[in-house]
Amino acid sequence: MTVSALCENFVYNYIYMNKETYAEQMGALPEYKSACAGSLAFIVLYNLTNINITEWIREIATIKVPGFYAKETADYVFRENPVLTAMGAAAGLWLGKWLHWFVMYNINIDMISFTTTIAPVSYVWNLILTFVFAMLVNGILYFKLEKINMAESLKSIE
Question: CA 112, CA 115: separation in Å to the nearest integer?
Fold first, then answer.
């Protein structure tokens, strides 16, 4: 491998490679950070929506008794999710920028340093993927709504 340039280094002495060279030398590119972040987003949204359904089980059963269609029931239950997702995404953009700066500032030590630059396209991807995961969770929990036993839910004691 030939050296093509030098750069300012923040961590000891390392070799920097482009994606093609890395893939050629190592075999594959690491994508674990995106998978972990996506999994975390899915789990948080799933748990929050699942808790919401569990708390509203009697109301959902009451709506199903008169014969509401499945889509009408889902619209009733999931109507607040897009609004809450938008509020969370907006707060997350602002707080995330501050938290990123805070963490990067506090982990600087003598032998390692990080920049606090976030690319503008990251904000766009953040919004898009947040809403994609929210819709995915709604789609998965739609089937849980269908499995609610009306008789058992209505006679349960709070």
Answer: 11
Distance of alpha carbon 87 from alpha carbon 65, whole angstroms: 33
The residues facing 112 across adjacent strands are 109
Work out the average pLDDT over 77-82: 87
Residues 149, 58: contact at Cβ < 8 Å?
Answer: no
Residue 151 has pLDDT above 70, yes or no: no
Q: In this structure, are residues 77 and 64 in contact, taking their beta carbons and an 8 Å threshold?
A: no
**CA distances for 136 relative to 42, 117, 123, 130, 155, angstroms:** 8, 30, 20, 10, 31
Question: What is the pLDDT, as a whole number, of residue 86?
Answer: 92
What is the secondary structure of 72-126 as a DSSP string?
HHHHHHHTTHHHHHHHHHHHHHHHHHHHHHHHHHHT-BTTB-------HHHHHHH
Contact (CB, 8 A) for 115 and 104: yes
Is residue 128 within 8 Å of 146, Cβ to Cβ?
A: no
CA nearest neighbour of 74 among 154, 143, 133: 143
